[in-house]
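S.,

Sequence below, as promised.
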Amino acid sequence: MVDNIVGMAIGAAIDRSDGDSGVGGAVGGYLVQEAIEIVTPLLITFAIGWGVQYLARRAFQAVTGDDAVARG
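The prediction came back faster than expected:
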């Protein structure tokens, strides 16, 4: 909840710097904060999965000497 308020406050401050009322920026800041909360775990999961499969391919190459499999 607090992070949503921070996102709204930052968005409103940016919107006010343009001379607007800040309401549109507050809504935008809230939406961006929500999107970050959804996308961040997905990106972390993707990065971990990519690292695991990369290391598995390299380990297979080291054991078998087959370079074609390691290149994908």
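The chain has a mean pLDDT of 78.

Coffee later?
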